Amino acid sequence: MERKWWHEKVAYQIYPKSFYDSNGDGIGDIPGIISKLDYLKDLGVDIIWLSPCFCSPLADQGYDISDYYNIDPRFGAIEDIDRLLEEAKKRDMYILMDLVVNHCSDEHEWFVKACEDPQGEYGKFFYFEKGKEDGSAPNNWRSYFGGSVWDKIPGHEDENMYYLHMFHKKQPDLNWENPKLREEVYKMINWWLDKGLAGFRIDAIINIKKALPFEKYSYPADRPDGMVMPQRMLQDAEGIGEFLGEMHRRTFKLHDAFSVGEVFNVEDEDLPEFIGEDGYFSSMFDFNETIFGGSINGWYDAKMITPDDYKRCCFESQKQMGDFGYFSNIIENHDEPRGVSRYIPEGECTIRSKKLLGAMNFMLKGLPFIYQGQEIGMENVVLTSIDQVDDISTLDEYQVARNAGLSDEEALKAVNRFSRDNARTPMQWSAEDNAGFTEGTPWLYVNPNYTKINVEAQQSDRDSVLNWYRAMISLRKNPQYKETVVYGDTVPVLENVHNIMAYYRKSEDQTLLVIGNYQTGAQTVELPCTITKVLLDNTKADQSGEMELPAVKNGKLTLEGYQAIVAVVE
């Protein structure tokens, strides 16, 4: 694997609307992000990914873009982005933005003009299709947010003409089969890279290739609504590599830019094409843990993940990657619930267990992405009413659960586990009003536990989750261990021991052991190596000094409940 400038970095995702509000309007903004750059630098962050802050009606919280060349006034102005890039550069930090080009907003100029003249130039930027003879939609695909992917073209004289939207109806899909559309996308990408952007996180990109012609690809229904999940169509959509390869050559490669794809379900044999040498992307996210237990019936039917499941998912991905590429590792993001509430068994969420989860993920081979608030152990909220929910996906899944016969209380609990709002509540900076996020009224409710879980309280607490993340980042960058942590192989060990997650990180001259007892009770294991130095131990308040070696008797190591250790071994 060719070594790249970004391999040794640590990345951090910001959801701008909920990060920090600088002007008291209750909405996070770009100036607020600038004011927190020193906090991120002190944490050890190098790369910052901003979720969309482009002009948008916010039907899907910014993932419906109405102007790719401008910043929504809620978040600031284009000059604020210029200042952010400048201030980041002063701190040797890099900025990524979200590339959302499977779809745009129905308020984008392209779609407005397309609807005015469906047969004209811009009509070919979208998928406009005639319905069936009986007036029904061209096929039975279900949107990711529920309901048909087809809606009538607004204002069209032929009432049997539809447009395609794989997501929300205000997110019409762009027609990547049209070379003129692709040229516009590449021009926009290069405009941002020329401005100084370091690269992009690429949203929903696997959806840009459709199974065509549409009327040929109706499928047997998978729910009582008579429709089929959109992922089924993707199995028959061939040739996406032509689009992705062209985009890579025309944009990212020219700038040595970093690109990380939101890509699901790539076959093992295709991975080198995606993220191998000269692949479509620099990296892609490991979603093996996030998709575990999913059900075609909906969130209410999802299987809960256990510590052993989590371990298997991580090791499967590490094996899948091999030595040809580099995954981007996550515990949570803006589309997922809080990781500590998802991957730690209910009732066992403590400071120590949060640190264990952080270590088990962070020490894997790959580029670590930290989502805002993860570094202080932010947790899911507890919904008391569906009226609290902002997220369109959660609202749809709630109705799916109710239609399946769940009571209001059961449906609410089911969607609460997975709601995207869990990760979108305001960042908890302090115990002051509104968690120090805003002096105004926050756009989304603040998690009530902010008085106990916040940055200010954890800054000076040596035993805090925040300082544990600092210690892990420091270890990753330590010249004595960087070669092993960044580039070393991941070798699972003790795989069949219940609730023990353990693996080696091996380089040519060094071996580290990462081991955690993923349960509340103590556990004794046969240690297949000799520990010579402890680098991190989450049972210790201070990670900065030299640590005593753990008690090993007759080759057996006893770990306390949720104890995690990173050690040098022979």
Describe this structure as you would to a colleague.
By secondary structure, the protein is of the alpha/beta class. It has 18 helices and 21 strands. It has helices at 16-19, 30-35, 37-43, 78-90, 109-116, 179-195, 230-234, 240-255, 271-275, 307-321, 339-343, 351-362, 392-403, 408-418, 421-424, 455-459, 465-477, 482-487, and strands spanning 11-14, 47-50, 54-55, 67-71, 94-99, 128-130, 150-152, 161-164, 199-202, 258-261, 283-285, 327-329, 367-371, 489-493, 500-506, 511-517, 523-526, 531-537, 552-553, 556-559, 564-569. The protein has an 8-stranded parallel beta barrel. Strands 14-15-16-21-18 form a 5-stranded antiparallel beta sheet.
For the structure shown, list the relevant keywords:
21 strands; five-stranded antiparallel beta sheet; eight-stranded parallel barrel; 570 residues; 16% strand
SS content category: alpha/beta
Which blocks of ≥5 consecutive residues have pLDDT under 50? none
Shape descriptor: globular
Beta strand %: 15-25%
Main beta sheet: 8 strands, parallel, barrel
Portion of residues within helices: 25-40%
Number of E strands: 21
Overall average residue pLDDT: 97
Count of DSSP helices? 18
